[in-house]
Write a structure and sequence with these properties.
Radius of gyration: 20 Å
InterPro entries: Cycloisomerase_2, Haem_d1_sf, Lactonase_7-beta_prop, WD40/YVTN_repeat-like_dom_sf
Order of helices and strands: HEEEEEEEEEEEEEEEEEEEEEEEEEEEE
Organism: Flavivirga aquimarina
CATH topology of one domain: Methylamine Dehydrogenase, Chain H
Oligomer: single chain
Strand order of the largest sheet: 3-2-1-28
Largest sheet: 4 strands, antiparallel
Family: Belongs to the cycloisomerase 2 family.
GO molecular function, one term: hydrolase activity
Structural class: mainly beta
Number of helices: 1
Pfam families: Lactonase
Length: about 350
C-alpha cells in the first residue's frame, strides 16, 4: 500500500472510531441476559456494534450515570432489593464498588443529582423512596432518609424520582400523585404530597422536566396519557392532558417512559400495548403539547427509550421482543423514521 492510501485508510479508521460513543443497557436477567451490557453507537449512522457484557449482576432494571460519567448506579430488582455502584473501566467494563439495601421491595428507578453526591431510589413494591449520599470514590453510603408513601387505605408504588436543584420530585403510581420534597440543612422534607390533583386512576409513572424547572410532563401508565404541569408563584397548575394513543387504537395499553428533546421543541412517550412512540410538538411559550405522530417501535413492550447526545437519534428498549430499535429524528418536525433493530436479551434501560 502506498503512503497516500495508507493515510486515507488511517483517516477513515480514526473518523469511524471518533463517531462511536458508549451505550450501556440494563436488563432483566431471568432469561438469557447476564447483567449490564456495553455497545458502541455510531452518531453518524445510528449503527450499534461490539456488544459485550460490561458486568454480570442480577436484574439491573434501571441504570444512571454520575455527572462525570465515571460511575454507574443500578437499581437491582433482585431478592435482596439493592442499589449498586460501579466504576467505569477501560473498554466499557464495569467494576462493582459496593452494594447497599434499597430499603424496600422492587427498586425500579435510580437517579443522581447534578453534583453527583446524592442518589434516590424508588421502590415500586415497597412504596417508598430512599436517599443516599455518594462518596468521592463513587461508593454509596447506607440510606440517610427513607420516605414511606403507604397508608392504611392505599398501597403506594413509587416509580421514579428526580432531583432539580434543592427539590426532589417523585412519581407515585399507586397514590396517583407526584410528590415534592425540598432540601434544607442537608435533609429532605415533604412540601406537597400531590403537586396537582388527579381524577380517576391515571397512574403517574415517569416524568420529564424542562431545563428551567417550570414545566413537568408526567406520563400516566394506566391512563395512556400525559399530564402537562406548570410551576407558578403559588404552586403548580395542570395546563394540558393528552392521550398517547393513536385515535384508531382500541386495545390495552400501559405507558412507560417519557423524554423531552434537548431543544425542548418535542416530547416523546412510549406505549406498551400499542407498541409505539408517541411524538408531540411542544409550544415553548405556554408549554402545551400537540400529538403529531404514533410510530411502531418494531418490537414488543417498549419499557424504556432514550435520545442520543447529538439529538439525531432515538433508541427504544423492547423488553419482550429482545431488541433495541433505532430511529432517526427529523430536526425540523421532530418526527421519527425507523432505521433498524439490534438483538439483545430483555433490554429495559438505555444509558448514554
Amino acid at each position: 500500500m502506498n503512503v497516500k492510501l495508507f493515510l486515507v485508510a488511517v483517516s477513515i479508521f480514526l473518523n469511524s472510531n471518533a463517531q462511536n460513543i458508549p451505550l450501556y443497557v440494563g436488563t432483566y436477567t431471568n432469561e438469557d441476559s447476564k447483567g449490564i451490557y456495553h455497545l458502541q453507537f455510531n452518531t453518524k449512522t445510528g449503527e450499534l456494534s461490539n456488544k459485550t457484557l460490561a458486568v454480570a449482576t442480577q436484574n439491573p432494571s434501571f441504570i444512571s450515570f454520575s455527572p462525570n460519567k465515571k460511575f454507574i448506579y443500578a437499581a437491582g430488582e433482585s431478592s435482596i432489593s439493592a442499589v449498586s455502584a460501579f466504576k467505569v473501566e477501560s473498554e466499557g467494563k464495569l467494576k462493582l464498588i459496593n452494594t447497599v439495601s434499597s430499603n424496600g421491595k422492587g427498586p425500579c428507578h435510580v437517579s443522581i443529582n447534578s453534583l453527583g453526591d446524592k442518589a434516590v431510589v424508588s421502590n415500586y413494591r415497597g412504596g417508598n423512596i430512599s436517599i443516599y449520599s455518594i462518596n468521592k470514590d463513587g461508593s454509596l453510603n447506607e440510606a440517610s432518609q427513607t420516605f414511606n408513601h403507604n397508608t392504611d387505605e392505599r398501597a403506594s408504588h413509587a416509580h421514579s424520582a428526580q432531583f432539580y436543584k434543592d427539590l426532589l420530585y417523585v412519581a407515585d403510581l399507586g397514590m396517583n400523585a407526584v410528590y415534592q420534597y425540598k432540601l434544607t440543612d442537608n435533609a429532605y422534607s415533604l412540601v406537597s404530597p400531590a403537586i396537582v390533583k388527579t381524577t380517576g386512576n391515571p397512574g403517574p409513572r415517569h416524568f420529564s422536566l424542562s431545563h428551567d424547572g417550570t414545566f413537568i410532563y408526567i406520563i400516566n401508565e394506566y391512563g395512556s396519557s400525559i399530564t402537562s404541569v406548570k410551576k407558578t408563584a403559588n404552586g403548580f397548575e395542570e395546563i394540558d392532558y393528552d392521550s398517547t394513543l393513536d385515535d384508531h387504537y382500541k386495545g390495552k395499553n400501559s405507558c412507560a417512559d417519557i423524554h423531552l428533546s434537548k431543544d425542548e421543541r418535542f416530547l416523546y412517550g412510549s406505549n406498551r400495548g400499542e407498541n409505539s412512540i408517541a411524538v408531540f410538538k411542544r409550544n415553548p411559550l405556554d408549554g402545551t403539547i400537540q400529538k403529531i405522530q404514533n410510530i411502531s417501535v418494531h418490537g414488543d413492550w417498549p419499557r424504556n427509550f432514550t435520545l442520543d447526545p447529538t439529538g439525531k437519534f432515538l433508541l427504544v428498549a423492547n423488553k419482550k421482543s429482545n431488541n433495541i430499535s433505532v430511529f432517526k429524528i427529523d430536526k425540523k418536525s421532530g418526527k421519527l423514521t425507523f432505521l433498524h433493530a439490534t438483538d439483545l436479551p430483555t433490554p429495559v434501560c438505555l444509558l448514554f
